[in-house]
Each structure stands twice: as structure tokens, then as C-alpha cells.
Design goal:
Two copies of one chain form a homodimer.
Chain A: H1 2-6, E1 15-21, E2 34-40, E3 49-57, H2 62-65, E4 84-94, E5 104-110, E6 114-117, E7 122-125, H3 133-155, E8 162-165, H4 171-182, E9 186-191, H5 194-202, E10 208-211, H6 217-224, E11 229-234, H7 238-245, E12 248-256, H8 279-282, E13 286-289, H9 299-311, E14 319-323, H10 328-335, E15 343-347
Parallel strand pairs in A: 8-9, 8-11, 9-10, 11-12, 12-13, 14-15
Antiparallel strand pairs in A: 1-2, 3-4, 3-6, 3-15, 4-5, 5-7
Chain lengths: 352, 352
């Protein structure tokens, strides 16, 4: 009965659907790791809110939340419970004075049509003027603050610095590269394929782009940054990171935002470190990691710059919106194989 | 003729002996990489000084100077020229007003009985009160400043911090560990064997010691630092570093002083990075490398603390002095196999 209902594409009135984490992935996210469930929407208790999910943000780090990783920055999603994700939702019902029906809210929710929450970790939002809701969510929820705090708080660029961003066509990467450009830096993006590289040059207005699918990245960076890289904003790890490490300037900074090339295959079991790590000494590097969740209380600082840039069209952003909750797992998988162009999100319900 | 003379244990009056770099090492320092040469001491030109070498400091990084390594912090020693090393010498003759005969001087010299120099990169020293010359040289030339600037300028410990030092019985490591202790930190040393571990506990007064030859380092650190490591002072790299990375505290600092476990076998060809590098994100680490040569102009800051500590006996230091220039190569080789106990140096000439 449960199995039959989980195949139903739409929940009936009074029902909600969600992706349940059933098994922890080993290498790829295998087919039996998650299953789509349908359950009745529970009646709200005092203090609770029923959120109707509009958009689900898919982020590279989601893969890590499925695993039990020693020293992970948050506990693994428990087996048998809804998969977690950042969502934009509309308040459908509320028994919580902090949320009014019809309001837009953003928070750590579920891969689900609806979420019942006590409101903790959620924030009600005003619709920003002149920015489509999908774009506002795509930039302001995760990617934009990740880029802004990583670049500004960890990287600390000065005008004229040479900045390299890997996975520069990705959601956080494209914001990070443009933030550096808007701060007066010379920005080189690393991305794969003519479409992404073309967008970075023509739309995001980077100074140079390296296509790792057709170029030797280390040689290209050596040519494009003959005096060395002041700031590397790293999203990838592995060989791509090594190519940049070999081209850092003395005293340079490596902002470690993500290591997506190492996420499939068990980070917890010991991933692949940079082979050219000795450059940390040779170049006197500062290599520093961060997690955007630490900056939640300071999101306003990032938004104060990001919103005007979006309104004025100075910060370009590509959305890659997949339609329908049922496509969430396949969409996330595609991210680890560079299948997406821009910020990957799932439209689960209609904007009202 | 040249070959026969190079076997002579002592140079005659008017002659000097030196180790010449003939071939770059591949894995170990092979037998034909260096040869002992005897040549006439040249007449001094105006501005030159003849230094009679008393002590040669052997340092792990010497192995790197023999190789051509991309992005190395200084150029490789040219083939066919004297091997470089830090030495303590007595001014034998001087045509340079900055140096008087009989004065003690320290600088980047050669593995040699004598060095002719224009004095650049050398400093004349007063003999410090109450400290044997060998100890003053052993601590103040390289090991002490390396430890002091790495710990104080890069690590920046606060009283009560938990500090881990790898290769803690080595020259820089033993100073770094004791500096942290003298600054009010709780210090855990990692070393190999009962002799070194016993010295660290009984003489250097560390709070705890892990013997990597008999203990699982990661488990021991987890037990000894259950709340995590605030500062890791890393001298080793490889598995030893991974064991500490897994036990860092959120927001901790990794001072990368050396990666000795990766030096034999070709750093330039791509060494072995930390397998557990993803902790840089999970723990929001700052991983920062440094080279003591950058701090030459600031040596006085380190000496201002190190000299009184030595005079009062608060900083313990072990010297491992090998006798005779001809033993230099074997002595350096032993360092990469943990053969030395304390600061390794070669006595080349008598203290006058």
C-alpha cells in the first residue's frame, strides 16, 4: 500500500509527499537510498506552522548530509526520516505568531511538498522588489551568502588582486567570481565546457576563463596569472585544486568552500587531499575552510550588497530549475557530474 | 689528484675542505650526490671575510635545497658548488669593517671548514652569557626562531589552549612545545620511542606524550584532547598529520612548519597531501605555512624570549653533535629515519 502510494505523482488534499532517507550512499547515491513517501498532513499543534514548499535548493553538500562522517559540521540525516534541504515556502497554516498565512519563508526544511515546523531555523521574508522569487531564493538563501562570506570574510580581497574561482559556473562559484570582480579584482574562472565558459566571459564578465575539459589548467593559470594567484576560492579539490596550488603567489590565501570532486566515494573514509600540499610552506599559504551555516546570524551583511547588485543587474545568476519533487534525487546526482548549468533547484509547488 | 685529496681527513694549512653537490638526489641522498673536496683558501679581496667554521646546523629542509623544486622558497644549490647550510664560525681574517678577527658570526654558509664571504647574510654575535656556544647556536640560529615565529606569529596560542606538536623531540618541535607550555598551554607531544618520549615528559615537562611507534596516534589524541586540538604545530605530514586533523577543534589552527615524512622521494614530483584534508571545511580550520627565513629581520623578538629562558633553564634543549665535517652527509641522512635525538649539528672546528 505504502509502496503503491509512493509512486503517485501528486498527493491528494490533506496528504503530503516527501523523500525519505532509507540507506546511506556508498559511492553514488544509489537507487535504494531514498524513497518517495506519501503521508497525511498532521493537524498543527500550538506554535507550529504548515509550510507549503515552493522551491527546494539542491546543494553539493547535501550528499554529505546523507552519510555518517566523523567530525561532520552537522549530524547526518537519520535513516527513516525526511531528507533535509533548504527550501522556500509559503505559510499555508500557522499556529505560531511569527508566521502569517500567505507569507514567504525560508529555512532548513525537507525534500517535501509540505513541512510542519515550530519555526525554528526559519525566517519570514518580504518579497524583494524587482527580483523574481526564484532568483531571490537561488541567490540569497545559500549561494550568495556562501560566496560573499567566503570571499569577503575569509578571502579578504584587495582591489587589483588576482582571484581564481573553481567551479566558477556553479551557484556559489559564479557569485564568488562576480563579487571579486565587483570588488576590483582580476578574476579567472575555471569551468568545464563551452557553454559555461562562454557564460562566464560574456555574462558574468570575468577577465579570463579556463576550460578544464580542453585545457591543461596548471599551464593555463601559469600563463594567465604569471605573477601568481592572490586568492583561490576553491569549490572542487583534487587535481583542479593542485593546479591552482602550484600557481599561488607567496603569502596567498586559499578559501576552501567545497571539495565536490571528493564527495562521492566516502569522505568519511578518507578522501583525496591535495597532492601539492607542500606549497602551503613553499608559498606561505593560508588555507582556510568555512561553512555558511556559521554565518546565518550575519546574512544581512551579505544581503545588503547582494540585493542591490541583483536589482541593478550587476550580479548575473543562472537558475537551473527542475520541475517536480520526484525529480529531486536525479537532479542532485547530476550535480556531481557537472550536469547542471547554474543554481540547481526543484520547483515543488506553484508561486502564489 | 683531486680524488686522492678529497679522501684526506684533514686539510693542510692554507687549504679548506667542503662538500660539493654533484648530483641531485632522487629518493634518499645517494652516495654520489655529494663529494668532499679540498682546495686552497683563496686570498681575500677587499670587503671579504674568511670564516673558520665551528658548527654546521643540519636541518630537515637541507634535503629540499639539493633538489630543483618548482616554487621552492629559495633556488636549489647549483651542481658543482658547495652545499649550503647554517653555520657558526669564527672570523679568521677580515678585509670587511663589519667583522673583526676572533669574533663569532652566524650565517648561511657552506658544509665546509672555511667560508669566504662578503658578509651578506651573516651577523656577528656577542657570546651570550651563561649559555655554551653550541647550545646558543643550536637554539638561536634556526630551531628556536622557527619554533617561536611559527607558534607565536602563526599559531597565536592563548593560555589554556590545547596544543599538539609532531616531531616534538626534534629541534624545532621541542622548542615549539616548550614555548607553548611557557605560554600557559596544555601541550601534547608526538614522538617515536621511549627515549624521546621520556625526555619530553621528564625534561621538557610536556603535559602528555604520544609514542607513534607503539600507539595509535589518532586514538591517543582523541583520548588526550577530548575537546579537540586548538593548535597543531606540524613538522611531519602524512599519516601523523592526518591523525591530528581528525582531532582538531572547530576553528583550530594548523601551523605547517615542516612535512619531513614527504621530503625523501621527490616533493617536486607531487608529494603526499593529507588524506583527511576535508577537515579544513568540517572544522573551519586555518592551515598556514611559514618559512623562518622570512623572519630574519625580526630574530631579535624571538631571542628576547629565548635567551632568558635558556639562561634560567626553563627551555630544555638536546644537542646531537656529530664530530667532523666528513660525517655531515651520513648525519643528515639519519634525520629522515629518526636517528637523531635533539638538534643535529656537526662540529667542524674547535671553539677557540
Amino acid at each position: 500500500m505504502e509502496a503503491a502510494r509512493s509512486l503517485s505523482p501528486q498527493a491528494n488534499a490533506g496528504e503530503m509527499r516527501y523523500w525519505r532517507l532509507d540507506k546511506r550512499p556508498k559511492i553514488e547515491i544509489e537507487d535504494d537510498c531514498l524513497s518517495l513517501q506519501t503521508v497525511p498532513i498532521p493537524a498543527l499543534e500550538e506554535g507550529q506552522v504548515l509550510m507549503r514548499v515552493v522551491y527546494l535548493s539542491l546543494d553539493a553538500t547535501n550528499r554529505l548530509w546523507m552519510e555518517e562522517i566523523e567530525n561532520m559540521y552537522m549530524p547526518a540525516v537519520p535513516l527513516g526520516t525526511p531528507m533535509l534541504g533548504f527550501v522556500l515556502a509559503e505559510v499555508a497554516e500557522s499556529r505560531n505568531p511569527g508566521f502569517r498565512p500567505g507569507q514567504i519563508a525560508m529555512g532548513l526544511g525537507h525534500w517535501a511538498s509540505h513541512v510542519v515546523t515550530d519555526g525554528e531555523g526559519w525566517m519570514a521574508l518580504d518579497r524583494p522588489d524587482g527580483i523574481p522569487l526564484s532568483l531571490a531564493f537561488g541567490v540569497l538563501a545559500i549561494a550568495g551568502p556562501t560566496a560573499w562570506f567566503g570571499m569577503m570574510d575569509v578571502g579578504r580581497p584587495k582591489p587589483g588582486d588576482t582571484v581564481v574561482v573553481s567551479a566558477a559556473a556553479g551557484a556559489a562559484g559564479s557569485c564568488a567570481a562576480q563579487i571579486a570582480r565587483l570588488k576590483g579584482c582580476r578574476v579567472i574562472g575555471i569551468a568545464g565546457g563551452a557553454d559555461k565558459c562562454g557564460w562566464l566571459k560574456d555574462e558574468a564578465k570575468l577577465d579570463a576563463v579556463v576550460d578544464y575539459k580542453t585545457e591543461n589548467v596548471a599551464e593555463a593559470l601559469h600563463r594567465l596569472a604569471p605573477e601568481g594567484i592572490d586568492i583561490l576560492y576553491e569549490n572542487v579539490g583534487g587535481d583542479i585544486m593542485d593546479a591552482s596550488l602550484a600557481n599561488m603567489k607567496q603569502g596567498g590565501t586559499v578559501v576552501v568552500c567545497g571539495l565536490i570532486s571528493t564527495y562521492n566515494g566516502g569522505v568519511g573514509a578518507g578522501g583525496t587531499g591535495p597532492k601539492l600540499f607542500h606549497n602551503v610552506i613553499m608559498k606561505r599559504l593560508r588555507i582556510q575552510g568555512f561553512v555558511v551555516l556559521d554565518y546565518m546570524a550575519r546574512y544581512g551583511e551579505a544581503w545588503a550588497e547582494l540585493i542591490p547588485w541583483l536589482q541593478k543587474g550587476e550580479l548575473k545568476f543562472r537558475l537551473d530549475i527542475v520541475d517536480g519533487l520526484e525529480k529531486s534525487v536525479d537532479a542532485l546526482r547530476s550535480m556531481y557530474h557537472s550536469g547542471n548549468s547554474g543554481k540547481l533547484m526543484v520547483q515543488i509547488g506553484a508561486e502564489s
